[in-house]
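Problem 12. The chain below contains 394 residues. Write out its predicted structure in token notation.
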Amino acid sequence: MVVLATAYALMLVDTVRAQGNGVLEGQVVNGTTGGAEVGAGLPVTLYAFRGNEEVGFWETTTDAGGRFRFEGLDTDAGVDYWPEVVYLDVSYRTETPHRFEGDLTTGAATVTVYETTDDDSAVRLDSIHMIAESFGQVLRISEIYLFGNDGDRTYVGRDGETVSITLPERAVGLAFQEGTPGDRYIEVEGGLRDTEPLLPGAGTSMAFFSYHLMVDGDTVPLARRFDYPVATMNMLVAQPGLTMQTEQMQAQGSELFQDRQYDFFVANNLTAGETVEVEFRPTGDVSSGEGMPGASTSGDQGAAVASERGSQGLLRWLGFALAGLAVVGVVVYAAAARQPATSRASTRDLTSNPRARSILVELADLEGTFEAGQIGEATYERQRAEKYEALKSL
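Solution.
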């Protein structure tokens, strides 16, 4: 079976290679101030996607100047090419794919790599997005973290452990985004440690998980502490079923998304180590049990917009939630063996798929374009629904 799969992959590569005369030249540069110059022998892999399907890949190495070259590429504008480099056991790729436009048969690309560090002083949480749902005697809390790195070195932590995620003491039934590798997170006292390197830039790593809180009284308290500065924290409380009280988050009113109502709360500029305390009160009615909101199935249906155009942040993070496709099932988390540093680069989930990361960026750009009034609501809904469907296919 492995032999057949390998032969099929090679057949795809040969097919794409034989179809065109495109040439992609590029260079690998070091983005760390004072970092080593990229020389000869660094492996470079070029991945080809047609739509959402990977249709081939090629491998080469850099020359003495850090340059690389791929020939025989299909110049069809529908094929996206992603150069990827592994440097110091960390994978790097271009922020956007290369695509041959018009009659062009040559292209250029730059892949930026970085030195590594075990210092987490540049780590931040660009945003935290939470959904609270009531299911009678149990509450489900889903959390999405977007980590960023203000430095010019990739944070790799120590002993293969990187960013930390705290968990409530009363949390049970921890579950992760569908497709998350089983050995990505390591259980530590008070929470979890990721094993994925954190690249420089905004939103370069995403964590998506859920847990449950048991209802054993009239109210259910929840205290969340974060080990890094937090730019924005959002909370959606699904209706019907729950009310929430807090002195640290500001109520933003009620929001409708895909025929479901949410009470919306926000807090900004939290310091590292600051604790946010909320208190839920079940109201007797419960959520439908359908889990996270799902993407539309057609462009005509679209994705319902929030009740006010000013809720750009809410719409954007719901897009990321939909990109995660749902936290499925209730599983008991078991500590996994540490992932060897040499294999970190090969571990992939939704956010490490180059096509998926591109769609996430496109979603964010689409929100900004709509908020600026540059496109109409019908176009916005159609394009967003199309991008959600593309993410679902991945």
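Discussion. The chain has four helices and 22 strands. Students who got a different answer should revisit the alignment rule from Section 12.3.
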